Amino acid sequence: MSDSLLARHKAVLPDWLSLYYEEPIEIVSGSGRHVTDADGNTYLDFFAGILTNAIGYDIDEISDAVRRQVDTGVLHTSTLYLIRQQVELAERIAELSGLRNPKVFFTNSGTEANETALMLATQKRRSNQVLALRNSYHGRAFATLAVTGNRGWSATSLSPLKVSYVHGGYRYRSPFSQLSDADYIAACVDDLREVIETTTAGDVACMIAEPIQGVGGFATPPDGLLGAFAEVLDEYGILLISDEVQTGWGRTGEHFWGIQAHGVTPDAMTFAKGLGNGLAIGGLVAEAELIDDIGANSISTFGGNPISTGGAHAALEYLLEHDLQGNAAKLGAQLLQGLRAHECALIGDVRGKGLMIGVELVVPGGKQPAPEAAARVMELAKQRGLLIGKGGLHGNVLRLAPPMTLTESEAAHALRILTETVSLAEQELFSS
């Protein structure tokens, strides 16, 4: 890590742009699932640029697709012109969406994708009322902050939306946590209906929900919860938007889209992150009657540009051809089993699906959040050559989301480091 680079970062970038680690690192190269920092240290990457480098590093098929476009001399044209790569990628995503009559719109990020989905839904329903889940995170722009149910990420109370929050996404600390799956879902459905009846004017535009709450610490509700919600939403004509920014593209292992675990087809799905394997791309796929229903001019200057869509299409085909969804299911099960079998009082909950795993750390003997332990485990893991993420409402959840090309030996290696460092952090912080 270069002290001068850190000083320059602090001098010209916002104070709220936080960095991981007591001594932040600069990643300068990567191959497969490994990255190397400016000091020559190599790490097994178990966070993948916040789930973005879904295929890994230095993938020929993706790099070649980008080079082919660069070699044309055209880096950008805009949506005012036909873009072949944009059309081809949209066709593929529409085919994979499971929607009845899908159309696709490309953006530059998940935040922008969610902003677009909220704009479409509120315009369609002529209402600015929106339902969201507690502990949610949907982006850092004006409307997406409004539907973020996590104080740590809520930079302002100002909002273009009237938002009502419901229970369900974060089970571990829910007042319904001790209930069975069926009773938990029933209690959350009752809460949803009461929220609609008591906190809204009735004409709600949509509900936006993450099938697994990413920034919220990979909080994982019971399968079927959002499907049960959808039955209530249908009674009121409320649209359902599934935020697949982190759960899309097979990362959960059992399904290609996270919402599929809930037995419902949404009106729209937003996406980003893993699609581009590091390229800036996001978007949404929605029913044509929703996505076409704008009575004003609109374009996207950079959304769907030929470099991002060409590279993303190559990444998507690589993911499908190599059955990375199946790999996520297999190795995710290996990691979940190993973490759940590890006896350590610091671990309060192990949850998630596929290669999207959260480990919530608590003060031994109860459920009090232990954010200092999460920070310590991250440092200890880094010292042993493993990079992991952190999140959750209280900053006490280890987030594990490696590239989906992870190998069995790499998963076993990471598991050894994780169990070792969690136990060591417990000894350091809580042994008397």
UniProtKB/TrEMBL annotation:
Pfam families linked to this entry: Aminotran_3
Source organism (scientific name): Saccharopolyspora mangrovi
Protein name: alanine--glyoxylate transaminase
Keywords: Aminotransferase, Pyridoxal phosphate, Transferase
CDD domains attached to this UniProt entry: OAT_like
Family: Belongs to the class-III pyridoxal-phosphate-dependent aminotransferase family.
Highest taxon above the source species: Bacteria
Reported cofactor(s): pyridoxal 5'-phosphate
Assembly and binders: Homotetramer.
GO MF, one annotated term: transaminase activity
